Amino acid sequence: DILAQYAKEHFGNRNTADEKMAAEMLSFSEAAFTLTTGFNMTLAQKTMMGLFMQGKSAGLMAGGGKTGVYVLYHGLMKMAMGKSYSGVIFAENKGGVDNFVKRGFGEGSYRDLAAAFGLKLHDGIKLQEKHDTAKIGEVLNSSEDLLVLDYVTAAHINNQSVKEDPTLFAQIVLKKDTRIGTVDELHLLAIN
Fold it and tell me: Using CA atoms, how far apart are residues 55 and 158, in angstroms rounded to an integer?
């Protein structure tokens, strides 16, 4: 993929980004969004991304394009952090996970958008259903992979790691200080 190759050549092998590099990465992310999906980012999406880059929480109305921004944010963090990056996206349920890992988006898909940054999306629910804890641990600590799972599955994985799987627990805590996590539909946790 041309976008992934460009990102790797221009932004790969970095562990930090200065202001100029951050601006270039933001420009790349907007271009990747447009080239992958056929859509231009809205002002609301750009604002959400800007708030994320400042370490703040943000959200958009239903249908406002949050899902694409979550994927872009993880892509930007991968470029900025290099090999130190690892990521997880928490979705509200299986449908939310499927939205990230299976659904088309414009002229492409969220998988295509992630691939522009050299990231591969993984369905954490499927991995848990297969009891593939080795793969879950591998994905959680990879700078090339992004785990997408729902809150309940995440809780089961954590409980299993503490109660019966010390290897998985060790994998979960390995990059805990640098793992980037985003939570889609956070309001569901707040109101339930």
Answer: 25
